[in-house]
Design brief:
Oligomer: single chain
Pathway: Amino-acid biosynthesis; L-lysine biosynthesis via DAP pathway; L-lysine from DL-2,6-diaminopimelate: step 1/1
Mean pLDDT: 93
Subunit structure: Homodimer.
CATH topology of the largest domain: TIM Barrel
Bound molecules: ligand LLP
CATH superfamily of the largest domain: Alanine racemase
Structural class: alpha/beta
Strand content: 25-35%
Keywords: Amino-acid biosynthesis, Decarboxylase, Lyase, Lysine biosynthesis, Pyridoxal phosphate
Pfam families: Orn_Arg_deC_N
Radius of gyration: 24 Å
Family: Belongs to the Orn/Lys/Arg decarboxylase class-II family. LysA subfamily.
């Protein structure tokens, strides 16, 4: 879930030019420092961005995002073509979704994975055809199921036995073609950070376990498989209002060790073979979920799309041969890897306060004009980020700093530990890298702060994708105002 501790975050400390790692990861490819020391994103000076759009602001590098979308699609298409299998890439909208972003990823050949009626509505408004949209969720409302059926979504990923009946009943009540569904299964593989663990039984809310009550998912015969996953697959097959499209597995997020994907895929392919032996139904598609990890800190290495695609393709080919079935069509659902590195958050520095630590050390607390309401990940997961002063280049000696927000909570931390120039001061522009995923999408109005805008930059021009909230927006929801 979170990244490794940020020892590398000061990797450029003491370099001749001061505290900067720009250009390079974890910044988007359009980020560079001009000769005057100020940073530009896709050719737009951050000082101009701040003047025009205010701070805090989420800044999205359109070309970088598009390139990542295209790269994932090409890498997986090529690697799976080698083994004779097709693959679809669904952009996981939960990472960040707006009408423009849905359009961009669709133009780059991706489909869109949604996890709520809201995400579905945005994808549809962008013009993404229903057939190229998936709907997830462990507790879909009747309204969400109806909206998905209205839109003719390409797949509803069902998450429980109750939901299988609810979707089938909704189709029965309205008539029409059977709804395409995938059953979300849990393989026992949980990945994230640098390790994965495999356990037979799971204590979490998603999906249906493929652990049978006897034996293991690897050894159990078709007739003996009484796992919740098999029970759900049989329940779908039994309902004529549903068309069993496939099996879905998502193992985690911010995964940097790819071996978990292969373990999960093998378990899913074995389940698919057992279902075929039992019912004659060989499902046409297997979704391997998202979770591809990115670099948050200088020196961190993101999962490489080509490498992971080749590894996963090779392993599913082996697994399908082992279980003796043809390969299905595959799909994947990257979110963070497409939008995360394309985004940064631009803040203005306010109060700067040295705080003496135990061993005579001092930490500089640098307050910015946002905080846990625009990026909850440090507080929620202990996530590490990298920040730099971007409005100018300083040659001042770097000091140990902590970037904090303006909320009334001591856990309101934006960057736990980073070296900033010792002369950082009120009015400086500070950027936090790789905030494109799960930043705006998890933002809140805590302390009734207004949520920042999302500004796209491309070829020297900026454009607002989602405008800044105003106090009037907040008051408009208050029926006594
Ligand atoms: N597919 C499914 C079914 C998922 O549940 C998720 C993420 C994804 C795809 C996309 O995963 P990605 O490629 O973005 O890692 N709020 C957390 C991440 C939660 C992810 C939930 N599911 C964070 O900020 O790290």
């Amino acid at each position: 879930m979170t990244t490794a501790p940020g020892s590398a975050s000061g990797s450029a400390v003491g370099s001749a030019v001061g505290v900067t790692t720009i250009p390079g990861e974890p910044w988007s490819t359009g980020v560079e420092r001009g000769a005057d020391g100020a940073v530009r994103v896709a050719g737009v000076d951050v000082r101009a961005l701040a003047a025009e759009h205010g701070t805090p602001a989420y800044v999205l590098d359109e070309q970088d995002l598009r390139t990542r979308a295209r790269t994932y699609r090409r890498a997986f298409t090529e690697a799976f073509a080698e083994i004779g299998a097709g693959v679809d890439v669904y952009y996981a909208g939960k990472a960040f979704l707006s009408v423009a972003v849905a359009r961009w990823v669709h133009e780059e050949g991706l489909r869109v994975d949604t996890a709520s009626g809201g995400e579905l509505a945005v994808a549809l408004r962008a013009g993404v055809p229903g057939a190229e949209i998936g709907l997830h969720g462990n507790n879909k409302s009747d309204g969400e199921i109806a909206a998905a059926l209205d839109a003719g979504v390409g797949r509803i990923i069902v998450d429980s036995l109750v939901e299988i009946e609810r979707v089938a009943d909704a189709v029965a009540a309205r008539g029409g073609a059977p709804a395409p569904v995938m059953v979300r299964v849990t393989t026992g593989v949980h990945a994230g950070g640098h390790e994965y663990i495999s356990t037979a039984h799971e204590d979490q809310k998603f999906g249906l376990s493929l652990a049978p009550s006897r034996g293991t998912a690897d050894t159990v015969a078709a007739a003996d498989d009484d796992s919740p996953a098999m029970t759900a697959l049989l329940a779908v097959v039994a309902r004529p209002e549903l068309r069993l499209l496939g099996i879905h597995s998502h193992i985690g997020s911010q995964i940097l060790d790819p071996s978990g994907f292969a373990v999960a895929a093998r378990a899913v392919l074995a389940l698919r073979a057992r279902l075929a032996a039992r019912t004659g139904v060989l499902v046409e598609e297997v979704d391997l979920g998202g979770g591809y990890g990115i670099a948050y800190l200088p020196g961190e290495v993101a999962l490489d799309a080509d490498r992971i695609a080749k590894e996963v393709a090779a392993s599913v080919e082996r697994s399908a041969a082992e279980v003796g079935t043809d390969l299905p069509r595959f799909s994947i659902e990257p979110g963070r890897a497409i939008v995360g590195p394309a985004g940064l958050t631009l803040y203005s520095v306010g109060t700067v306060k040295p705080v003496r630590l135990d061993e005579g050390r001092t930490r500089l607390y640098v307050s910015v004009d946002g905080g846990m309401s625009d990026n909850i990940r440090p507080a929620l997961y202990g996530a590490q980020y990298h920040a730099e002063v971007v409005g100018r280049l300083s040659t001042a000696e770097p000091v140990l700093a902590r970037v904090v927000g303006k909320h009334c909570e001591s856990g309101d931390i934006v960057v736990h530990e980073v070296h900033l120039p010792g002369d950082v001061r009120a009015g400086d522009l500070l950027a936090v890298a790789a905030t494109g995923a799960y930043g705006r999408s998890m933002a809140s109005n805590y302390n009734l702060l207004t949520r920042p805008p999302v500004v796209a930059v491309r070829e020297g021009a900026s454009r607002v994708l989602v405008r800044r909230e105003t106090v009037d927006d907040l008051l408009a929801l208050d029926t006594d105002a």
